[in-house]
Design brief:
The protein has 313 residues and is an alpha/beta fold. It has 13 helices and 14 strands.
Length: 313
């Protein structure tokens, strides 16, 4: 079997023990998983957090924080506020890490806008492009990567109805292509395979129930297959979140390790088919982040089908 070397990153929070565990497991770099506390402490992160978080191991990406209830800070939320300091602090953190490690660092953020809404929200687009221009000038070693989302956000035990998201597929690629006309390759996508697989499942059920749609020959933008995800992100994808889901895909069912070797092999065949060369972040849920058994299983799964990191445990 042919062996392929590729960069494999590990996601880690600001926790020394968790970072050390990911180093022990073997990875080429870290993607910081920022939490709500960064919203309060981001303006003084150099003094508010242990310096070893930034210097202990190679940092490649930082993920925009989540709120306390797990609500994602999407691009349309962050840049709709007059005060954009939360995202500014993330860019500043990325620049700080880039200067330490002497290479570019990605800022990762979600977007759930449809392309139609993105084009209609003129004030948002104006604010987004204005602030991105400022950030790219102020933080010259930082790039932006926008991540695909799932069609529905659901909070267990919540009295509220699920939130449906429009921007689940072709929307993100079109938005990024538009931003690249202004900012070039400093803007790209993150292809989250768990989100893509959930979208494929949900949309397949929806489309099968929609008898008013032309099933035999669906328009291209209604093709939610995993192959179409890989195809449409070709050439603009900066990072892949390599993970899976079980059940409904929420909470403990989200970001799970791949159990099916053939599924993992099929996804990596698409990676090869569409000439991807970006790194993979193994964004894997754990029962105990000081003992990352699921991360190790996923890394071993990749090695078993011929894809390994240059860094071993």
């Amino acid at each position: 079997m042919c062996s392929h070397k590729l960069k494999i990153y590990a996601k880690a929070s600001f926790d020394s023990a968790e970072i050390r565990e990911k180093i022990r497991c073997g990875c080429d770099g870290l993607e910081f998983n920022l939490r709500e506390d960064f919203l309060r402490r981001g303006s003084c992160f150099e003094a508010c957090y242990l310096q070893e978080y930034f210097t202990m191991y190679n940092v490649e990406a930082v993920h925009v924080p989540f709120y306390a209830d797990g609500q994602v800070m999407n691009i349309e939320h962050v840049f709709s506020h007059e005060d954009v300091s939360p995202i500014r602090h993330v860019f500043r953190l990325a620049q700080y890490c880039a200067e330490i490690w002497k290479h570019r660092v990605l800022v990762v953020i979600h977007c759930s806008l449809s392309y139609y809404d993105y084009m209609q929200y003129e004030l948002l687009r104006r604010q987004l492009t204005k602030k991105l221009r400022q950030f790219f000038e102020q933080y010259p070693m930082v790039d932006l990567a926008i991540e695909n989302v799932i069609p529905m956000e659901y909070k267990q035990n919540s009295a509220e109805s699920p939130r449906l998201c429009n921007g689940t597929f072709t929307d993100l690629a079109r938005i990024v292509y538009g931003l690249r006309e202004q900012f070039g390759e400093r803007v790209g996508t993150v292809l989250d395979l768990c989100h893509a697989a959930m979208t494929e499942k949900y949309m397949k059920v929806l489309l099968e129930a929609a008898d008013f749609l032309p099933h035999e020959s669906l328009p291209e933008h209604l093709d939610y297959s995993m192959e179409h995800f890989f195809r449409i992100h070709q050439g603009i994808c900066r990072l892949i979140h390599f993970n899976d889901f079980t059940g409904n895909g929420y909470l403990q069912n989200h970001g799970t390790p791949l159990q099916d070797k053939e599924k993992a092999a099929a996804w990596m065949r698409l990676y090869e088919k569409y000439a991807y060369d970006c790194p993979l972040t193994l964004e894997i849920r754990e029962e105990d982040y000081n003992n990352c058994v699921n991360y190790k299983k996923t890394k071993a799964m990749l090695a078993s089908i011929g894809y390994s990191s240059s860094i071993t445990a």
